[in-house]
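Each lists chain and fold; for instance:
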Amino acid sequence: MDAKEIERRARAVPAEERPVPKGALAGIGSFLGIYGGEHIAATEFVIGALLVTWGVKASELLVGLLVGNLIAASSYALITAPIAVDTRLTLFAYLRQVMGPWFQRVYNLTWGLISIVWASSMLAISATSLKEIAGLPVQLNWYPTSGACVAITLALTLVTVFVAAFGFKGVVKFSSLCVPWMVTVFLCGAVVAVPLVQQQTGFGSIDGPGGFLRLLNAHIFNGEVPEGGVLLTWVHVAMFAWMCGFVYHLGLNDMSIFRFAKKRAYGWVGLFGMYLGHFFAWVCAGVMGGAAALVLKKGLTELDPGAVTAVILGGTGLCAVIVAGWTTATPNIYRAALSFATFFPKWSLRRLSFFVGSIIAVCACFPAVMRIDWVANIAALIVPPVGAICLVEHWIFPKIGLVRHWNLYRGRAVNPAGLLAWGLSSAFALCGALGHWMHPFFLPLPTFLLAGISYPVFAFLLGARQAVPEETRSAVDAVEARVAALAEEELPPVASRGDAKPGANLCSRLTFGLSLAALAVLVLTAMGVGLGHITLQSFKLTALPCTILYFIFVCLSDFLKRRGMPRN
């Protein structure tokens, strides 16, 4: 292969499929913000309430969440992070090398559809707040039963799609600014919910953490299965906590984020996000849901997030559901648009966002998409086997005498061994789900292992052990090396900067301090409710102005910070 052909093939690889250049790598602070925002989402309100319906005692629940999130974080730090840093590629790009361009397109379609469902779920949950404000009934069927509810959902979805298409970077920034407020809202919700539970049940005073645990065991996570619920154990909780990140961790989809990390060790930052969202937020949401059910004298399965947060937090809670759904749905709309770009190469990303958004708008009108456990189950059965195949080829093949990237060297459109392994594991998952071989929370793990075990067997039988001619290896490696070089060459230069503006930076710090003060007032007021010194109604009246002030000051601080940065 001559130099001209190497250059042509290298430039044919899209920019997003090239390795991340060294100049674009990020420090640990970036990942603290990313993981904090990623795991505080609208779905936490649904999952927290869902945990109550499983009949798990509080002590079992806490153990299950501690264990499950530790396994999930370890999976990310020990498996996903190393391969992401080693390759500096997205999973989509790595699939081109491992599975071939044809399978890459199949996977893009699959992941695009999953992203559509995730975004639909987020927006359907957010819409429950607007329905609560409008006084519309809770949608309990899998299909919509109210024209007004459909209209509200469509309006919210269209606004979100418009923002995703025209202002994605701004939304990402706004999402990071929302994290401190969202954490505060969950904390305050749990604090003010406890007195409500005490009032409704006649529970005595709470003397420390032990008393709080007794309250949870007696009246929230009490081991009783409400109508429509299912009795589970701490092991089920642990597997569910692990499974919620399975698609992104062992499924390797988080390679797209972590490929920017300077060091593998940053993978342990995932502990922060997982315990913040999948432990703290879930428990707080469960407490809020249980309290709301007692106050309204209804089963928790009859309430949606809007109804729960309106009782506990008033207007601030409704804002939290809307914001959490909006900021988490937007990245999924963006991901879905990127996935479908393979099939519509001539369409702009903005046009694709509107196309995907129209599908999401229709899906979000169906309350069934709020069953996030079903959505997570389906995604965890289809996607992770692909991650198993890539992991085995990357780490195991060199150790057992098989050729890494053997399909790439052969120039085939699809890796037959990988296709067989994925098909076998998917068939196993489908049969297991339909035949009820095991609980859905346990099924993803054997499905993942089956793909990882069967792939090297099929690869051995189909020629992965055969030596690659040196000429072929050199040509392919030359193309990949040139792809990496292009990524370095085309990295935008860092502009020289002049002097900073100390006045703007000082004002930025002051306004940021005021935003934290607003959150402090919010927390102190909630503690006043918990101690019996302030009424719940007074808290609700205080919480909304504090929320407004927080966003005014934090956005102003960010604006001043950027204005005070050195310029050319």
